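Data availability (excerpt). The following record was deposited with the supplementary files.
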Amino acid sequence: MAGRSIVTRRAIVDIVRTAVQSSYGVTGFSDPSLWRRLLRWVGLDRPGMRLTTEGGVHLDLFITVAFGVPVAEVARQVDSAVRYSLRHYVGTEVAGLTIHVDGLRYQPNAVERAEATERAGAPDRAEAADEHSPNQTAAAGATASRKRKPR
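Predicted structure:
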């Protein structure tokens, strides 16, 4: 006698939510309508997802993306993560997946850290460019010696 397993809508929602939130560049979910915002405010709904199961699993995801990250790449990553997670954990293919990027979220701490890292690495790159510049060597003369920077 063959067994049968039933997967609830809540399990699918939890799997998809985890896959989306662990994707690079996603800062959160957004609400597609005022009505759903009100339901969320009351505590009856969770934002960012519409799931229908008639004729296969169809998903509409509403996400926000970090400022400065390629939006198309984030959408591809989310698509891949959701499809893989449902295939791996539930054993079903996604019939339809639509990703709506509702906005960009600016996170100043993340941008400041990236700029600080870039500034810290900039002198090293500038010195390396100066060492290999043909104009610099010609201006200094043919006997210019180059010192290697210790790593």
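Summary of structural features: The longest strand covers residues 94-105.
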